[in-house]
Specification:
By secondary structure, the chain is an alpha/beta fold. The protein contains 14 helices and 13 strands. Helices cover 35% and strands 15% of the residues. The strands form two sheets. The protein has a seven-stranded parallel β-sheet, sandwiched between helices. Helix 12 links the parallel strand 10 and strand 11. Helix 2 packs parallel to helix 3 and helix 3 crosses helix 4. The longest helix is centred in the N-terminal third of the chain and has 15 residues.
């Protein structure tokens, strides 16, 4: 196993590695850091939770130099899709940049514009930004990107899904064509490949996860249930207020709020977080969840990518995700840093088609888990073992241990 010192990082950064409590480089860090230090464009495809932030943050800090003495002229730009991820990236970069005395600034939507602008005017070397707020700065002539030496597009596929591709194209047209470009993504589709072909020719490809691959430390289950029984089943599954740290995903913002109220009425401390919550509400909910003041966080896919919270015990898909890729991102919130995690998906008859697509992508059968004594409606559909339409024989995940109530048959 390689050490960070073997990757070409200078002694100053080794202090930052120690400060961030990194022990050994992950595969994406091991493969991405050396070519980044060499100044090459890098396209990295790695599943969530593999250490992508440090993979670009550490070498980026070593690569840049202060080409301009103007205070509000950044030399590195990191673009991320959401406010929460931006805050997380800014924290890691700030810690790593301390030995260099670089100023790291954060500009995101949902927060007052002028205070962010004032902080940036006091000096910025590395800018972490969401696409919308960055475009505001560009359009208002409040930022000069002509001295950008390294551009990072983090969670590129998520930015594409969220409709940020036009802003990204504008940003690519604003930074110098000669700047080093780093793209990190969980999946690489046709649109991203087209962009890479135009702006990142002769890039180094780093691929850690194949499409449909999930972290092996996650035990995955499905629970067939009528939609009208989902809330009742969730309460039975959580087993009261003593449940471990759990993320619950819903398809809509309204359903997240409704479910949080149901859990609250049943004496389970929880909060909801989604796009309609203002930034202070989202920050408070995430902080309460991170520090353990609450164990349950109900959310939409705003939390599915990029957000790292330590020691999440379980993920529950209250609604089966429509996109198989979203399933992979959701459950990737657990099973990190070598620890085991559980992922349970409620599947109503109306969601069975989407669930089959998930299994098809992963080429695996997700075993059924039941709660003994729970009174399921007779109309629920139990998927047969033959539901996976792939040529090779499908096998359950190695950690999957189906729990069946008496008399249940698959």
């Amino acid at each position: 196993m390689k050490k960070f010192a073997d990757l070409g990082l200078d002694p100053k950064l080794m202090k930052a590695v120690s400060r961030l409590d990194y022990k050994h480089p992950t595969p994406v860090q091991e493969q991405a850091i050396p070519p980044i230090l060499e100044g090459k464009h890098v396209v990295a495809c790695a599943q969530t939770g593999t250490g992508k932030t440090a993979a670009f943050a550490l070498p980026l800090i070593q690569r840049i130099t202060r080409a301009s003495r103007k205070k509000a002229v950044p030399h590195a730009l990191i673009v991320v899709p959401t406010r929460e991820l931006a805050a997380q990236v800014e924290r890691v970069v700030s810690i790593a940049a301390l030995p260099y005395e670089y100023k790291v600034r954060l500009v995101v939507g949902g927060i007052k514009y002028k205070p962010q602008l004032e902080r940036m005017r006091r000096g910025v070397d590395i800018l972490v930004a969401t696409p919308g707020r960055l475009l505001d700065l560009i359009d208002d002539n409040h930022i000069d990107l002509r001295h950008i030496q390294v551009l990072v597009l983090d969670e590129a596929d998520r930015m594409l899904d969220m409709g940020f591709w036009p802003p990204i194209k504008k940003i690519l047209g604003t930074v110098p064509s000669s700047c080093q470009k780093l793209l990190f993504s969980a999946t690489i589709g046709n649109e991203i490949n087209k962009m890479v072909g135009v702006h990142m020719q002769n890039s180094v490809k780093v691929e850690i996860a194949r499409k449909g691959e999930t972290v092996q430390q996650i035990a995955q289950f499905c629970m067939p249930v009528e939609h009208s029984q989902k809330a009742e089943l969730l309460l039975a599954l959580l087993g009261g207020s003593t449940a471990g740290k759990t993320l619950i995903f819903t398809r809509t913002k309204r359903r997240a709020d409704v479910l949080a109220r149901i859990l609250g009425r049943n004496h389970i401390k929880c909060q909801a977080i989604h796009g309609d919550r203002n930034q202070s509400q989202r920050t408070r909910a995430l902080k309460d969840f991170t520090c353990g003041r609450i164990n349950i966080l109900v959310t939409t896919d705003v939390m599915a990518r990029g957000i790292h919270v330590d020691n999440i015990d379980a993920v529950i898909n209250y609604d089966t995700p429509v996109s198989p890729e979203d399933y992979i991102h959701r459950i990737g919130r657990t099973g990190r840093a070598g620890k085991m995690g559980d992922a349970t998906t409620f599947v109503s008859p109306e969601e069975m088609s989407a669930f089959r697509d998930i299994e098809f992508l992963m080429k695996s059968v997700i075993p059924v888990k039941d709660i003994e004594g729970f009174s399921y409606k007779e109309s629920r559909i139990i998927p047969p073992d033959t539901r996976l339409a792939v040529k090779q024989k499908a096998k359950p995940f190695q950690h999957g241990r189906p729990m069946r109530s008496k008399g249940h048959r698959r």
